[in-house]
Amino acid sequence: xxxxxxxxxxxxxxxxxxxxxxxxxxxxxxxxxxxxxxxxxxxxxxxxxxxxxxxxxxxxxxxxxxxxxxxxxxxxxxxxxxxxxxxxxxxxxxxxxxxxxxxxxxxxxxxxxx
Length: 114
Known about the structure:
Elements: E1 3-7, E2 10-12, E3 18-25, E4 34-39, E5 45-51, E6 58-60, E7 68-73, E8 78-83, E9 92-98, E10 108-112
Parallel strand pairs: 2-10
Antiparallel strand pairs: 1-3, 3-8, 4-5, 4-9, 5-6, 7-8, 9-10
């Protein structure tokens, strides 16, 4: 069955960096565009970034543009999100989601605080 497993979250100080990973299984990963979505406490889900099947096209929310970088390794069936210059407002549960949001992972918590 389809599984998406995020990792790499944690507590980081403002200005710090984290790299999230999403290990995919149960489907042909290279055939699907992928997304990162986050949900902050008390708020609805917010789309963060997307990437096409080959990785050559990437898309970002204005709130993270220039600070976050999405990438994928189709040989390893893994999606990544490199997050730099983190801000307290980036604190959220981060999910990877398949193209049409039909499958989501369980999420990994990112907390940005001094």
